Structures are given as C-alpha cells and as structure tokens.
Amino acid sequence: MSAGQIADDIGDVVILGGAFWSLMGGIGLLRLPDVLTRMHAATKPQVLGLLMMLLGVALRLRTADDITTLILVGLFQTWTVPVAAHMVARAARRR
User: Fold this and answer.
1) Do 67 and 55 meet the contact criterion of CB atoms below 8 Å apart?
2) Can you state the angle between helices 3-31 and 35-61, rounded to 10 degrees?
3) Cβ atoms of residues 49 and 21 within 8 Å
4) pLDDT tens-digit series, residues 42-54
5) Mean pLDDT of 46-67
6) How much is the pLDDT for 79?
7) What is the rounded distance in angstroms from the CA atom of residue 58 to the CA atom of residue 36?
8) Cα–Cα distance between 42 and 63 in angstroms, integer?
C-alpha cells in the first residue's frame, strides 16, 4: 500500500465524517425548537463538516493549486459564518 493510497483512504474517512456533521446540522435545523438553538445547529456543525470535507478533498487531490483554493474557501467560510449568525441572532432578538 503506497502513501498516496493511505492519504486517499484517510481523505475518504474525513469526507464521510464531514458529511455526517453537516447532516447533523441539517437535522438540528429541522428538530430544534427556537431560533437561537437553530442558529447554533446552523453554524457549528456545518462549519466543522465543511472544514472536514475540505481537508478530505485536500488529502485526495494533493496539488498546490487545489489546496490553496480549499484553504481560501475554508477561511472565507470561517470568517463569514459568525457574522451571519450574529445578524440572525440580532434580528431574532429584535423581533
């Protein structure tokens, strides 16, 4: 078994883990009772799931151009999700 095959297998497992966390966030959006708990389900597991999927894809692709793009996607996601969650919480509080 080569190092590339091991990286592919680890990438597959990490992608599945990220898909699981994203699924849990989606189920939380449907099942939780109020806006603030739904906001928690929409931000925390979704970002973790996306970052895990990006890590898994980076392990599968392994080229510098692809990894830089994936890093930028992860950074922009982690920068914008807290702002969006803050705006949702602020709107819910005012309502």
Assistant:
1) no
2) 170
3) yes
4) 898 999 999 999 9
5) 96
6) 94
7) 33
8) 31
- What is the rounded CA–CA span in Å between residue 39 and residue 43? 6
Q: By the 8 A CB rule, do 10 and 62 touch?
A: no
Torsion on CA atoms 27, 32, 37, 43, rounded to nearest 10: 10
Burial class (CB in 10 A: 0-12, 13-18, 19+), 10: middle
Q: What is the CA radius of gyration of the chain?
A: 16
Amino acid at 69: T
Domain spans, the chain: 3-94
Token pair, residue 33, equals 């009772």
Counting other chains too, the contacts that 57-64 makes at CB distance below 8 Å and 24 or more residues apart are 57/11, 57/15, 58/11, 59/7, 59/8, 59/10, 59/11, 59/14, 60/7, 60/8, 60/11, 60/12, 60/15, 62/4, 62/7
In this prediction, residue 25 carries a pLDDT of: 93
